[in-house]
Prior knowledge:
With 289 residues, this protein is an alpha/beta fold. It has 9 helices and 14 strands. A 7-stranded mixed sheet has the order 10-9-8-11-12-14-13, sandwiched between helices. The protein has a 4-stranded antiparallel sheet with strand order 2-3-1-4, with helices on one face. A 3-stranded mixed sheet has the order 5-6-7.
Amino acid sequence: MRDSWLHLSLRTAAANIDAVANFLVERGAPGVVIKPSGLEAYFARCRNERALKRAVRQYVRDIDELRGRGAQARLRWKVIGQENWHDSWRRFIKPCRVGKTFWVTPPWLTPPKFRRRQVITIEPGLAFGTGAHATTRGCMEFLEHAAASFAGRKFTALDVGTGAGILAIALVKLGAKQVWAIDNDPVALAVARENLRANAAAKRVHLSGRKLSIIKKRFSVVVANLTAETILDLAASLTKQVAPRGFLILSGIVRHKADAILRRFRANFRIVRQKRGREWASLLLRKKS
Length: 289
């Protein structure tokens, strides 16, 4: 486990927050917390920290100039020790309702009681994905739609880039008989493993760091909450992994890149639904045959 982390506190116009958050994730931040007036982000310590800070500063400056809204962004960097990680992270995480089915809560808080909602308990740890972000919410809402189409019949699913494991847990609670969840980040896998245990989902989820390209199975539902660039890189493998008439859910896509994603998959899939917010897009596709 790492001894220390770079912590970024950034205040910017509300209209810029999602775009900046996506940029920070693409630059390697495993933890990003969005707030009304800005965001908090965490990076592993590395040799090229100066280059990272320079790239972030330039991106924020460019987006300020492009949009020309509000006061200039303010950035503050500091180093925090591993022992301070939980205190730095936890104060931003709150329970949230997601879709029609779920109430997502961290383990240190008790969610309100909802008879018609299932509770997913998530320890965010160092992995991205707690249910609050628009990309995760989009995935979970589309998972509800896909699961409902099976009308109680058993189905299988693959979660690509599982992060904290929230989508894999949601799939189990929605009735998937078997879920494969993969991620190339050992920290994410460790967090996901604990979250699976906490939600009594471990027995039905095959969790691993296996590469997508070497998985030979096909699944009724495949979900990938990644970046647009990664989705395009994995497009051929993602297509192969979806069974005939199966669903493909794609998210983590900056809004203006959604059309490029749709063009790449339209030969094999039809559009069922799509959500396009101010900054993010989520897509629900169904394989033609």
